[in-house]
């Protein structure tokens, strides 16, 4: 980690989904944590614990009923003008389990990676944008010669590399990875996680790595937060949480996950 500057502050965030008059799901319950610049913060919990909702709230895809989410001191939960929204969308990017959800099957890789530049980098010439795309393809381990291929021509791991490249085109400050490797084979998972670690260093990027897999979260993260039924029940340095869990829920997560590849 490059320094101790705080990038993201999540303070006392609560968020409920009203499903019907009788049914309200409390997805987040007074959650607080912070992420430093250049840090990878792992958010772990079983399905339905509220991890994705936390990530989506930071990416401004859902709005908490109460609490504060600040990026470099700027409140993200407040109403924003179109211009402010555009800037905030550039700073926080999110990648998902299924890269196809964010990738247009009718576009080539070049078109997909040019789009973020066309939105945010109007001062660049076409040639500069194209060379930025080639450079980013190399960064994420894709052969630039494949720039004119379509997404369906790539494997699952390569598609996730494309979505990482797209997310990084405008140099965000924070990348939220929501179960981004869960659907991949174990060996490919390792490649993508190692790529994320490399990119974090090269781009001085902060990340929130969301996963149900505590072993994987420990492998990639500097610190870990454990979330259970919307409550952040434990938080600490990755090794501390992984090797000396304090909360019964963390211990049960640890027991439930086969610890083969990433210990
Ligand atoms: N848009 C929504 N409308 C209603 N309820 C929702 C919505 N999104 C999430 N929930 C509910 O909020 C709770 C937390 O869901 P969330 O997706 O954040 O959990 P998760 O830990 O990310 O689980 P998973 O890994 O299965 O996505 C769950 O009970 C879920 O059913």
From TrEMBL:
This is ABC transporter ATP-binding protein. PROSITE patterns: ABC_TRANSPORTER_1, ABC_TRANSPORTER_2. One of its GO terms (biological process) is transmembrane transport. One of its GO terms (molecular function) is ATP binding. It holds the Pfam family ABC_tran. Residues 8-254 form the ABC transporter domain. The keyword Disulfide bond does not apply. Keywords: ATP-binding, Nucleotide-binding, Transport. InterPro entries: AAA+_ATPase (IPR003593), ABC_transp_ATP-bind (IPR050319), ABC_transporter-like_ATP-bd (IPR003439), ABC_transporter-like_CS (IPR017871), Oligopep_ABC_C (IPR013563), P-loop_NTPase (IPR027417). The lineage of its organism: Bacteria, Pseudomonadati, Spirochaetota, Spirochaetia, Spirochaetales.
């Amino acid at each position: 980690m490059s320094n101790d500057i705080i990038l993201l502050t999540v303070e006392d965030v609560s968020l409920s989904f009203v499903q019907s008059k009788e049914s309200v799901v409390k997805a987040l319950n007074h959650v607080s944590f912070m992420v430093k610049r250049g840090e990878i913060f792992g958010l772990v919990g079983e399905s339905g614990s509220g991890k994705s909702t936390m990530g989506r709230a930071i990416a401004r895809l859902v709005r908490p009923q109460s609490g504060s989410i600040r990026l470099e001191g700027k409140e993200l939960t407040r109403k924003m003008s179109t211009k402010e929204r555009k800037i905030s969308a550039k700073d926080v990017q999110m990648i998902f389990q299924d890269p196809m959800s964010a990738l247009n099957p009718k576009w080539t890789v070049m078109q997909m990676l040019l789009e973020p530049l066309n939105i945010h980098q109007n001062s660049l010439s076409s040639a500069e944008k194209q060379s930025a795309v080639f450079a980013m393809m190399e960064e994420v381990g894709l052969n630039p010669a494949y720039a004119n291929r379509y997404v369906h021509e790539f494997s699952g791991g390569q598609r996730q590399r494309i979505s990482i490249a797209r997310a990084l085109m405008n140099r965000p400050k924070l990348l939220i990875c929501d179960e981004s490797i869960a659907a991949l084979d174990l060996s490919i998972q390792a490649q993508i996680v190692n790529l994320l670690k490399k990119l974090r260093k090269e781009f001085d990027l902060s990340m929130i790595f969301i996963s149900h897999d505590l072993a994987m979260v420990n492998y990639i993260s500097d610190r870990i937060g454990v979330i259970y039924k919307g409550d952040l029940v434990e938080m600490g340095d990755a090794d501390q949480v992984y090797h000396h869990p304090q909360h019964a829920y963390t211990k049960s997560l640890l027991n439930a996950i086969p610890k083969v590849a990433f210990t």
